[in-house]
């Protein structure tokens, strides 16, 4: 059975998709961009953008009764691979236990709303 996960603590979807879907203990989180859900505005600067994306992911995980320790797979989309080191450092800081999920990072030519970073995630719970 599929359960749609939605929280006001993360930005609303900007298209015909859900923030996340929970299926048999697996949570599929749509790509999150650096929109501050309190204001609906984009944050700017790769460091602030990355923190906002991670906060958005965290809010969705929390709504599903999970946290970053449940993450098993992420995909990071960057507009500029020169931002990799900054994004990587901030991303790593959200995983307290050092048990990082599997991941790939790819450079893309453009992202929604012309942001610099987008991250999607798959998480699992028993």
UniProtKB/TrEMBL annotation:
Among the GO molecular function terms of this UniProt record, one is: deaminase activity
Question: Looking at the record's lineage, which domain of life comes first?
Answer: Bacteria
GO cellular component: a single term: cytosol
Into which family does the record put it? Belongs to the RutC family.
**Name recorded for this polypeptide:** 2-iminobutanoate/2-iminopropanoate deaminase
The organism of origin for this protein: Epilithonimonas bovis DSM 19482
